[in-house]
Each structure stands twice: as structure tokens, then as C-alpha cells.
């Protein structure tokens, strides 16, 4: 395991500081909440729907939140706006064009443009738009996805609290 952690650093020339790295135990503790949240979402999906792939992008959202819970792309507003917008756009393109490449491509382009215009860029939402455009199923999946996004949004708060606790009680790490 490399100690450089270059994949976690801002790119050269970026005007952004690096999230303070924790020791291995701290990083694993910080990763625990996203893992548990996604397992809860998966259990919820299993009980209420058979459209498991519609929720895969939330796992990416959860990991981005773990990586940098204080980054703008992981704010509650950005997460909820982009994910719900993408799901809705994907769902409607599915209804208009059917579950194929035209629906997926249209949903992806509209989602990207609106994320930029609304300043709500959360990359996993692109996958959400594709998932709903390719296999939307029915309206209940959109409602279930909205509930799952709400659960994932709570993760932002949990991760920020965890960072605060870790910084307060382990200032030397």
C-alpha cells in the first residue's frame, strides 16, 4: 500500500487543499457510514423493488461523500438536486423514447447541461439518468429512489460529524 495517496490529492496547480488524511483506523471509521448507508439502501430496494441497478449510482455518491464530505459536489443540495433531477429526466426520456440509446443519450445530455446550469454537479447523477432511461420500470421506482437519495443525503451530515469528532478527539492524527 502506497503512503503517497496521490489519487486523493488535488491535481497539480489546483487551488484546493487536501483533506487531512486520518490514520488507517480513522479512514476505516469514516468509510463505515457510507458502507452501512448503501447496505440499508440495498436492503430497502430488495424489499420494495427488483430494480437493483437503478440504485448503483448511489454507491458512487456515498464513496464520494466519504472521500471529501466538505466538497461542494457532495453537499446535500447538490446531491439531492442532481440525483433527483437525473432520475426524473431519465424516467421521462424512457416514457418518451422507450428504454434505449436515444432515451439514455438524451437523458445524459440534459442532465449534464442542467447540472452545470444549476451549479449542482454531482458526477454519479449521470449514471442515474442512464439507469432510469434504460430501465425505468414504473413511477414507484422514482419514489423509492427519492427515498434512497434522502437516506444518502443524511450521510453528508454523518460524515461531517465524524470528521469533527475525529479532529476533536484525535488532533495529532
Automatic annotation (TrEMBL):
Alphabetically ordered keywords of this record: Membrane, Transmembrane, Transmembrane helix
UniProt entry tagged with the keyword Magnesium: no
Residues annotated as domain HPP transmembrane region: 27-157
Pfam families xref list: TM_HPP
Source organism, top-level taxon: Bacteria
Segments passing through the bilayer: 28-45, 79-97, 103-121, 142-167
UniProt key word Transmembrane: yes
Cited PANTHER family: TRANSMEMBRANE PROTEIN DDB_G0269096-RELATED
Identification of the protein by name: HPP family protein
Amino acid at each position: 500500500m502506497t503512503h503517497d495517496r496521490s489519487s486523493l490529492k488535488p491535481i497539480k496547480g489546483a487551488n484546493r487543499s487536501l483533506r487531512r488524511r486520518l490514520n488507517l483506523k480513522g479512514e476505516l471509521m469514516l468509510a463505515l457510514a457510507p458502507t452501512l448507508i448503501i447496505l440499508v439502501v440495498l436492503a430497502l430496494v430488495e424489499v420494495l423493488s427488483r430494480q437493483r441497478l437503478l440504485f448503483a449510482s448511489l454507491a458512487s455518491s456515498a464513496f464520494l461523500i466519504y472521500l471529501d464530505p466538505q466538497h461542494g459536489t457532495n453537499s446535500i443540495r447538490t446531491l439531492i438536486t442532481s440525483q433527483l433531477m437525473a432520475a426524473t429526466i431519465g424516467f421521462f426520456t424512457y416514457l418518451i423514447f422507450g428504454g434505449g440509446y436515444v432515451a439514455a443519450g438524451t437523458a445524459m445530455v440534459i442532465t449534464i447541461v442542467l447540472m452545470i446550469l444549476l451549479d449542482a454537479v454531482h458526477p454519479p447523477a449521470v449514471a442515474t439518468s442512464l439507469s432510469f432511461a434504460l430501465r425505468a420500470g414504473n413511477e414507484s421506482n422514482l419514489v423509492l429512489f427519492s427515498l434512497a437519495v434522502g437516506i444518502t443525503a443524511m450521510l453528508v451530515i454523518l460524515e461531517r460529524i465524524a470528521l469533527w469528532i475525529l479532529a476533536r478527539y484525535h488532533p495529532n492524527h
